[in-house]
Design a protein that fits this description.
Layout (H helix, E strand, L loop, with lengths): L1 E4 H6 L1 H10 L2 E5 L2 E6 L13 H12 L5 H8 L3 H10 L15 H11 L3
Parallel strand pairs: 1-2
Antiparallel strand pairs: 2-3
Helix pairs in contact: 3-4
Length: 117
Amino acid sequence: MKSMTATDAKDRFGEMLAVAEREPLSITRNGRVVVVAMPADTEKRPTGIDPATVDHKLEMYSRGLLSRSECQDATGLAFGEMLLRMGALELTLPVVRTRDRFTAVQRANYEGAFGGR
């Protein structure tokens, strides 16, 4: 994904729009991504993957069976595109249960700090 600073986006707005019409473009401020601009017709752009497969992967992500990065890798979609498609499918964001993904060391630290709550 291409990237541009917020100052550059402001100063070169037309160029930013031209890039964002073709592909997702991240806008950074102080080194952090604050916005991702992308084409409005993301559903019309082919991802190279069967749309039914993309929808299935998004449903798995919504149910908490895939992580965000696993879903992005499987579908080729940027997170913003995932959100748009999930909204169109009326899928909810997954409930993140970070304790389910703890390593043994992380679990021991958590239980030591919070008593397993």
